[in-house]
Structures are given as structure tokens and as C-alpha cells.
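Reply to dn_fold:

You asked what the input looked like. This is it:
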Amino acid sequence: MTEIHHQSANSRGRHVTAVLGPTNTGKTHLAVEQMLGHASGMIGLPLRLLAREIYDRVVDIKGSGAVALITGEEKIVPKAPRYYICTVEAMPRSVEVEFIAIDEVQLAGDEERGHIFSDRLLNWRGTRETMLLGAETIRPLLQQILPAANFITRPRFSNLSYGGQKKITRMPRRSAIVAFSSEAVYTIAEFIRRQRGGAAVVMGALSPRTRNAQVALYQSGEVDFLVATDAIGMGLNMDVGHVAFAATRKFDGSRSRDLMPAELAQIAGRAGRHMNDGTFGITGDATALDGDVVQQIENHRFDPLKRLQWRSTKLDYSSLQNLSRCLAQSPDLPGFTKARAAGDVLALETLARDSAIIHMATNPAAIDRLWQVCQIPDYRNTTSNEHASLLASVFKFLMSDSAAIPEDWLQQQLDYADKTDGDIDTLATRIAHIRTWTFVANRGDWLDNADKWRENTRAIEERLSDALHEKLTQRFIDRRTSVLMRRLREKDDLMAEINTAGEIQVEGEFVGRLDGFRFIADSHAGGAQEKALRAASLKAAAEKIAERADEFAKCEDQHISFDGTGKVIWREHVIARLQAGTTILKPDIEIFADEQLSGHERERVQKRLATFVDAQIAKHLEPLVNLSTAEDIEGLGRGVAFRLCEELGVLKREDVAADIKLLDQNLRKQLRKYGVRFGAYHVFCPALLKPAAVRWTMLLWALNQAKSTQMSLDYIPQPPQQGLTSVVADSTIPAGFYQSVGFRQCGKRAVRIDMLERVADMIRVLIFWKPEKQGDERPAGSIEGGGFSVTADMMSLVGCSGEDFTAILQTLGYRMEQRTVTQPATPVEDTPPEPAVSDDAVESKTADDSDAPAPVETQETTLEVWLPKRPAKNRQKPSGQIRNKRAKRNNQGRKPAPNRSANKRSKPEKKMPDLKDSPFAALAELKKTLEKTQGKDN
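and this is what came back:
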């Protein structure tokens, strides 16, 4: 591995990419994809549970023979692995791979584990690429430590907003309630079981297998609530909509303190997954969050880390004193501070005072072995002396003649834990005990037949984990009880109520919820009680729906929104959907509502929806709305305006060529006033090419497609990404889609129409270029005799070249021919150029052949020259006249060139000057003379 001390300050971080951002940004997913693009790779993760999840994912892609899983308690290493999925602590130092990623590098500031993450980000490098993943809080320190690193910021996929305080009984479904002690977790879970049917439980003390099983209960929907410690803050990807803090203080191992805003955000960030927005808040007796803290969490802006933890990895095993001295060293790099004594250092200090240990640890190999033993984690959370006593026993066994832990002694330790009876706390204690021996069994040189013991410890842990999961399920999850059945038999009318979240409870039992103006029955509320439950639910729902209708009719526009498929959303509920109407700018609206919404309430909802839709279309498609209602556009201009509205602001010029030809300047001026542009190939409204307008033109086009072709609105194609001027055209996309979003398909590409018009403007200048004064140089791409050649500027406008650009030109009506042109010969290298000669000098030299300079060397070159397509055969006008008319038509409405007067048409046409005495004629004579002379010499 690379040592940063050996690198110059400016080179530190070369080939390192730091991907920073809040939760739910896909950083880990990006790293895994990047790793799989290399021949070999390793990723270090903060949790064993997350490591197992990533391992399973990579195995599905690459196969079990190519992937290793290495954690402190589990090792799965095939014969020739290419990819290593590890916890950060367990990353093997001897393996060299092309790619290395370290996840959650901001943990380098953690007082307990920070020095391990600091070591990895400083010294671990892939041979080709290294990626550091973490929060923005570490950016300033990383920029200081690794100045040559490349930094990438990843925005959160969804929004995270503050939901305030909620009672547990009013907590929305898919919520996680966070506490910071097992006692608090159990109390809250018991309460939720009684009030809401049950909750899954996740704590750091649970084994990964138990945590996975509990999370599966939640993910499957069997329970709608999760009660957890801050163990959910990293690595657990769940469909959580809301995170509620039951406390904002915790004991961190040394003191009780308030959680920092960044720590709160790490946990709150579990709310919302991928594109689903999430909320966070408080519940119970938790202290209200300060307004500044809320803003920091919502905006993902926190105070940067001030320092990172550091501990030397260059250890001297020549003596216990030298080892302790190395571990006590202070860093010599800015931005780091010496890590506090962790559990392994405290254990070493305790054992170093034991005379028996001192007598054994007299050589580097023994001291190295002692340090390895000290790194056995204290999963049981016992006292330091009790843990040190266990470590001393292990070390003495390893230093005995057998150099291994005795099997009979180890079996006794396993037998103590291998019992599945007892309550939750007893089982959790046994799991912690067995995890110690799982860790030991993964040190292959500490045991005879280590593979057998590894399998034994894993099997015991799995049995205990399953038993603990069953206990948790029995205690905190209550299926529908017989109490509801008894009340149904005893009562004709059931008491129903609806909470603020729209959940309907009958006799205290959840039976369904309101989704906008619809009642959605609970899928579990079936069987004998279904009829009675539904009758009570609908009665309560009818009253609530009427209240919601009144609230919706009075709400402001900012509380209503659309999604990309035309669904209308209010209060996170889909309440209606747009449909094609009688005209394209007047879509119909289908309300999603049960029969409980009727009469006057339904009419008010319908009217409010229509007002909102009209306002949105008027806002985003203003040019079309104005064109459709304009009273000052007359005659043929009104017809063009109508077609523009029907085609959502884009017309191919050839489709309306006859009408455009008949438009006089006054009619064109009227249309231009409403934002219409007459391009060479399109008549369009440039304002409608903006992203907000494109979203609406695409949706209105889709509504009409759905009406005429039965296209599903749930599968509307995605428009080209903002900023792109052309894209590869998708052949499966229905005809008309690209035009609706302001693009035109040209061969295999779809090109933005304003870019096509800019290309056309460039071409027009090149084809019809004439010198305005003597000596003007012909611009690049302009070909003498008419036509043009392709330039880099043209291709840059549309973002393509080669065959794709050729197809664009052909679509625009140009043809290509091979033409031989005469150009100055390429000058010989190191030969000074001839001095420039003015036109007057050329003329005077021609008069006297004796003083004529050496003729200019030329060469013939074959070029691809593009020309407008030949006119139809029935048109007998000369090509020059055709070109002049085209130029005049294309330049209508444009400002004249500076050297042309405004009243040009009133002046008599200029006669072409006699060219026989011009410099060009003189040069032609020189060329002929040169050719004759060369012919004689040959």
C-alpha cells in the first residue's frame, strides 16, 4: 500500500476520487459499479451487515468463485477471488487490486474507529483507481490532506423535510422511531404493538442475521413501523417514509451528550429512498429540534470536521515499551489528532502489567501475536478487566507448546452459548458471546482444524439469531386479535375514527386509509368481519372526504402539482389525471374519487382542478395560449397560428410551405409579435424549447397519443437530457414525440430544431458569400463556384460528426458531390514564406514580365462539396436566379448587411464591372504562362 508520507504535497491524492454527498445519493452503488468495471477490486464498508448485502449483490453479478467476503466474524474466500467485500477493519493488507473504495470516510473523525478509516484513506490505494465515499463534512480536510484528489458531489435523490412533532399514535405508516437504549426501544415497540399492531426492532446488539430478519418483516409490510437505535444510520436500505426521534441525546461510551446535526441527519436520511421524498421529526419526550438544526438537515449543510483521528500503523515489536511508544505517537500531518486509547490499546496496557504476559512477550513474534489478541472486540460489553482476562487466556494458549487454543476449552465456551431458551436479553447476550468465538475462529492459525470451528460458531450464531427473531416477533407483533371479533358480535354500530394521516380505525383496529378522495381498505381486513368493517369505514370516510373537498377547493396553487404522466397530486395523494380534450390546449380532467364525493362537493373539486390546469398551461405555454386567443391575426396568419397550436409550437416548414409563401410581411410581423420564428426549415416558438415548457408539450402530446393510439401514459418516453443538442434517436419511440419536445429526427439522431436553424444560418452565409471589398478572404467552408464544405463549428452545434452529420445535411435537403478545387500548395517545412503582395503590385508586375515574381505554387484537391438539391425539372429558371430567390426568401425579416442600403430595391441594378483588367485576370494569365512553361520543360 502507498504511504502518503513518501509523496510530495502536490501529488497526494493523485488517482483518488472523493465522492461526497448526503444519504440517498447512490454513492455506494456507484462505487460497486466502478469496481466491477475493473479486473479486480476491494471495497471497505462500515458495517458487517452492509458488507454482506453488497457481497450478495456482487455474487449475483460475478459468481461466487470471483468474490470474497471478509469481516471480523465471517470469511468466505474462494481459491482465486477477484473482488473483496470487507468491513474497513478487516481489509486484507497483502492483497493488491486495481480498484479500492472506502465507504463513509467521514468516520475518520470518530473517536472510537476513526484511526482505522484514517489509515485506509491515507495509505490504501488501488493500482489504477481509488474512491473515497462520504459526507460533505470531510471535504475541507480531504482537500488539505489529498490536494491532487478529484472531488465529485452527489446530490440527494429525494427531498428530506421536517415533519414536526407527532404522537406515536398519529405516526404515519412506514415510519421508523429512533431511541438510544434497548430499554427505550422495547418500551416504544410494546406501545406500538398495542396501538398499531406491531413493530420490527433493530439494534446494534442484534446479530446481522436477526437484524435482517426484523428488517424483512418491515419491508414485507407485515408491520408498518420500525423501532431502532442509531444502528439504522448506516447501511440499512429500507422503505422508510418518516423518521421520528424519541430522543436526541445518547451515551457514546464515555458520556451522555446531544447528537450533532450531522449525526441526526445520518439517521434522518433513512427517510425517503431513491426518488421518494422523506420526512423527519420528533415524538414522545424528545426535545424539539432547533430551527437552525432543522435547516442544516434539510439542506444537508453541516459544520466541517475539524480533525481526523490518527494512530500509527508503523509498529515496533522489539519490546512492549516500543510498541506502546508507537501507539502513543502523535501525527505529523496537518488535520489529524492522536486517537484516544481504543479497546485494543487499553487491553494491551492491562496485559502489559501481567508478569506472566511480560515473561512470554520477549521477542517480536510474541509481541506481534499479543497485539493481534488485543484486537479481539469486546462484543459482550464487559468490564475492561474481565475482557483482558479472556484475552490473557487466549494469548497463553497461543504461546504454549501447541501454539493453539485447546479444543476442549473452546468447546466449553461454545456450550455455554449454544442454548436457544431464555428471554430476549439472554439470547442477545449469548449471541454477543458467540460472536467473540466466531471472530477467533476466523484466525486460521489460532486453532487446529479452524474450518470446523468456523462452521460450528456460525451455526450456533444462526440458531441463536433465529430464536431471538422469533422472540422479538412474538413480543412486539400482534396479529388481529379475538377482541375485534368479539366486539363485532356484540355491536351493530362500530365506532370509527380517522386520524390526521388519513388512517381509519374501527374499534381501535386499523382497517384502511384515505388516499385523496378514495378509501383504500386494509388488505388484512377480510374474512367474517369485512362487511361490518367496510360499512363503518365508509361512513367515516364520507364525512372526511367532504371536508377534504372543501379544503382542496380553497387551497393555493403551490399545494397542487403534476407528475410526468399527467397525474394531479395534492397532499402527496393522486386525486386526478389529465385526459385528451376537444382541443390540445384544453385537456379534460378525470377525478379519482369514490361515490362519497358527489353533488356540490364534486363540482367544486372539478372547477378547482380546471382552474389550476388552465393556469399551468397559460404559464408554461404562454405563446400557444396567446396565439389561440389572438384577435389581431388575420387570414392565412390565423391558419398558421392554429396549426402551430395543434402541433404544440413546432411546424416543419415544408408542411406549410404553400401557406408561408402567401404570407405577406404584415402577417408575418403579426405572428412574430407572439413569439413565432420563421426559420429555414421550421416555423416555431423558441420559448417553448425551455425545459418547463417541454414538460408540458410532451405531456399534451402524450394525452392525445393515448386517445388515438391507446398508448399508456405510464410509459411516456423520457425527453432528451437538458443541455444536449442532439441524441441517438430511439426507434421504438412513437412518431411525433421528438417534434413535441423540440427535436427533429435526422437519420439516426434527433437534433434540437434551434440548432438545426443555426446550422442553416451558417450554411447560407457560406453558399452565398461574396466579397464586400477587394481583398476579402473567403471564409472557411465556403467553396468558390457555390456550395460549402463541412466545418467543425457546424458539427459542434449539433454534437455529432461523420455519418450522423451527413444524415442531418441530407435531411435538410443538401446533396454532396466530389469536386476538384485548386488551392495553394502546402509550403515546404522550414522554407520562409513569400512576402505578401498587394493587388496593385500584382497588376504592375504583370505589365512587365521581366520583373514578374516566381508564380505561386498550387495544387488540386478533391473535396466533398455540399449543394442545395437540384430544382425540380419543371422549373426552367436559371440556377443563379433560383439561388438569388432563395437567398431573398431566407433573408426576409432579417436586418440587411451593413453595406446594403435600406432602399436597395429602388436603385437601378448595378452592372458587373469589366474583369479583364482586374488582379484576378492578371493572376489567371500568370497561371496559364506557368502551365505552358512547365509543359515545355516536361
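The chain is about 40% helix and 15% strand.
Hope that clears it up.
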